[in-house]
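User: Structure with fe (ii) ion, tokens only please.
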Amino acid sequence: MIEEMNIIDVLLIEHGTFYLQFEHLEQTAPAIEQLGELQSKVSMLAAVLPTHARLEDELLFTALEPHLGTMGGPLFVMRMEHDQLEGLLGQLPQLEDLDQAKDMLAEAITVARQHFGKEEQILFAIARQSLDADTLNRLGGEFAARRGVASSHGGIAPCGTPGRLPNQQESRGNR
Ligand SMILES: [Fe+2]
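Assistant:
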């Protein structure tokens, strides 16, 4: 049972797992000679990173809107970058040229690293100042629940909750 989970800490831990994926992809992509193999390697990142961005947006960014506004400013920029990342990773499976796919993967990793850096150095510091501990913990519990992790705040997320992978929903539904 998870008692307290600050959403900023949850997001930082997920960033850490994405950094590992970026490094692994950067190490393995140069030697790949088949487009399908590259696309298969990227599929995990393409499935998980957009759900990270959507949950962060729905939970943390929405809570910050009264403090930061939505027109211009950091939330506007962060949401634009989420769209850019989702677009790059969403286009990759449709490409028919290996070099183009490698370039697009490299661009997505660059954009993601810069985006995470801005969040870690600026946005998360603003969030810790703007939102109280109870709110950050409630949002962390909601984030965990939406990921399917048992939590004192939300328990197991119901099937069909946005931000979950389809196979997770199916496997829970079959229990
Ligand atoms: Fe983000």
